[in-house]
Write a structure and sequence with these properties.
The chain is an alpha+beta fold and about 625 residues long. Helices cover about 40% and strands about 20% of the residues. Strand 10 and strand 11 form a beta hairpin. Helix 11 crosses helix 12 and helix 18 crosses helix 20.
Length: about 625
């Protein structure tokens, strides 16, 4: 086309599919009109990135000194809006070829499918279409695009369209390179012509655009996309500021990961582990912790497809070039790109935690104290990384001080040669566990017992049957295969007396108990109850009862300590048959006492009354 012709305003028809597309945009996307701003910012940011690339590669451009920035102007009275960038701009050909046609054949196929299925289109699909710019037609009837390419000797052009069937292009006057898009809002969207409102919308997603954004000459974005910087170029203060900004946390993070992944998947990411967990770890961390960006523009605020549930304590951003802007939820959910990103993030986070566990134990313990409950659930959700997670889980134990943790690895390392299994006890708290009579044997014999005091343990630990070839066994389950220490010179009842006494116990207790046995593990207490081999873990039972009030606990096995003086006294009573009433009462009291400690005594009144009766007898002169 000769210069003489291009100076005149020319009219161009949109192609048929473009008309369809425009129609769809205008009529299907009206529910989220504010997306136009994000699309325009995104285009400006792209254009600025391109020109920046030319600058850094020393390509000749016009207005080389123009500051890379985005200017937005709004005027309430005139209901007007404009956005101007000093980016790459467009030549006339580009205006025709890039702004006037449907971007890809995929778009058209997608459109056809949508039309055939009769589904409505939502704003998340705009980016997939590659028609972001056209979203402005939701809020305006006519758009003007003035642009001047960064190419040396370029001319400036003005493109105008009502978004219906055609557009015009004419030459115009524009001093600097870049693009200015202006329009008046439709009456129903006039409230967008307000700098406060625009800034507000901007805040949500464009704070990390790498270029300054001004709204009515005021700076509207504060933080740059620091995850794009080279690691060595970022100060820790900047990282911390960024964390505080995105997390609303007042404290610095416990630690962070800066990822720059290139290869068959490309993304940059800054991920933070906070110091303190929210009040409800499982509820409060679910969604908006890690934001997904596509080329510095936020495309998803939540991280449900990006971060596995057990790592949802993470905060931060993931920015990938491999996903188009505004991919819909359905698309990301099944996207192999998301799956790859998730896998890389998972293994990097596990590697970081492993490094802490290895070299910065205090830091790791802090992490585990805060987020361990959630983290452990990875045991039954991430089978690929189960071994790594297993190495990273921690417990207090009978050999750790309160608040100190043991790993399974350290447990096994300090096992005695004759010990074949890993032992644990469950309870509501360390204090409660320490009073558990079933623990006595283990303490006395210096055998370590892991304390499962976190309710989550009951749900996740069953997924871990063994570690390092050793079974993980509850001390509360009967039939522990441990021999009572022989060097203890405490006299026990003879086998015959024991057997007789046990018969009497069974007579008195009847079907309240599954069995009565001579205990191998009691040292200081006269008796305790344990769960039979097939029974549920007592803590688990407690949970079941909370969920279902009709759930009945399994019958317990009563274990008696035949070295204990009380049991010996009862044996004498049993043999002499002098006071069978007292014997019966004592047996019932012992059983109920053990059930009380177990947390399963329903009728405490009887227990207390009987106690009073027994004390009366004991104090009678
Ligand atoms: P997309 O950005 O997904 O390619 P758009 O419809 O938003 O789709 O834009 C179409 C094309 O128009 C862009 O690819 C770009 O070439 C051009 N364009 C849009 N806005 C600008 C701008 N501010 N500066 C330079 N080119 C632009």
């Amino acid at each position: 086309m000769s210069d003489g012709v291009s100076a005149i305003k020319q009219e161009y028809e949109f192609k048929a599919e473009m008309k369809q597309l425009l129609n769809l945009i205008i009529h299907s996307l009206y529910t989220h009109p504010e997306v136009f701003l994000r699309e325009l910012i995104s285009n400006s940011s792209d254009a600025l990135n391109k020109v920046r690339f030319k600058k850094v590669t020393n390509t000749e451009i016009i207005s080389p000194d123009a500051e890379l920035r985005i200017n937005i102007l709004v005027n309430k009275e005139q209901k007007s809006f404009s956005i101007e960038d000093t980016g790459i701009g467009m030549t006339k050909e580009e205006l025709i070829n890039q702004l006037g046609v449907v971007a890809s054949s995929g778009t058209l196929n997608f459109l056809k499918q949508v039309k055939e299925s009769g589904k409505s289109i939502d704003e998340n699909m705009i980016g997939q279409f590659g028609v972001g710019f056209y979203s402005v037609f939701m809020v305006t009837d006519e758009v003007s695009v003035e642009t001047r390419s960064a190419e040396p000797f370029s001319k400036s052009y003005k493109w105008v369209s009502n978004g219906e069937s055609s557009y015009t292009i004419e030459e115009t006057e524009k001093d600097t390179r870049g693009t200015k898009i202006s329009f008046k809002f439709k009456d129903e969207f006039a409230d967008f012509a307000d700098d406060y409102k625009i800034k507000n919308i901007l805040q949500k997603y464009s704070n990390f655009v790498e270029f300054p954004i001004f709204v009515n000459n005021e700076r509207a974005n504060t933080i740059e996309a620091i995850w794009h910087k080279k690691k060595d170029d970022i100060k820790i203060e900047e990282i911390n500021e960024f964390y505080k900004f995105i997390s609303n946390d007042f404290q610095e993070p416990l630690g962070y990961l800066h990822l720059n992944i290139e290869g068959n998947i490309n993304f940059k990411s800054l991920l933070f582990i906070p110091q303190i967990a929210p009040a409800n770890l499982f509820r409060d961390f679910q969604d908006k912790s890690v934001h997904l960006y596509s080329n510095k523009i936020l495309i998803r605020e939540d991280s449900t497809d990006l971060i596995p549930e057990y790592l949802r304590f993470l905060r931060g951003v993931v920015d990938t070039e491999d996903l188009p802007l505004n991919v819909s939820r359905e698309v990301t959910q099944n996207s192999p790109i998301m799956a790859k990103i998730r896998n890389v993030i998972t293994s990097k986070v596990l590697a970081l935690l492993d490094e802490w566990a290895d070299k910065e134990n205090d830091k790791y313990n802090k992490f585990f104290e805060q987020f361990g409950s959630l983290f452990k659930t990875g045991l039954n959700s991430d089978f690929t990384n189960k071994d790594k997670i297993t190495e990273l889980i921690r417990f207090e134990s009978s050999k750790s001080a309160k608040g100190e943790f043991r790993s399974l690895n350290s447990y096994v390392a300090s096992m005695k040669p004759e010990q074949k299994e890993i032992y644990y006890a469950t309870g509501n708290s360390r204090e409660q566990l320490e009073r558990n009579p079933n623990l006595e044997y283990f303490i006395k014999n210096d055998i370590e017992v892991l304390y499962f005091t976190d309710p989550v343990d009951l749900f996740v630990m069953p997924y871990l049957f063994e570690y390092d070839g050793k079974k993980i066994v509850s001390i509360e389950k009967a039939e522990l295969n441990i021999d009572k220490k022989t060097d203890e010179k405490v006299e026990s009842l003879s086998e015959e007396s024991s057997d007789d006494l046990i018969i009497e116990f069974k007579n008195v207790l009847g079907d309240k108990v599954e069995d009565v046995l001579v205990s191998k593990r009691l040292v200081d207490s006269p008796a305790s109850v344990v769960v039979g081999k097939e029974g549920l873990d007592p803590q688990m039972e407690k949970m079941m009862k909370m969920m279902d009030k009709d759930f009945s606990a399994s019958k317990r096995i009563l274990e008696i300590n035949t070295s204990h003086q009380l049991i010996k006294n009862l044996s004498s009573l049993n043999i002499s048959k002098t006071n069978s009433e007292l014997l019966k009462n004592c047996i019932t009291q012992i059983y109920e006492g053990a059930m009380l400690i177990d947390g399963n005594l329903n009728n405490t009144t009887d227990f207390v009354n009987r106690m009073a009766e027994l004390m009366t007898i004991a104090t009678n002169k």
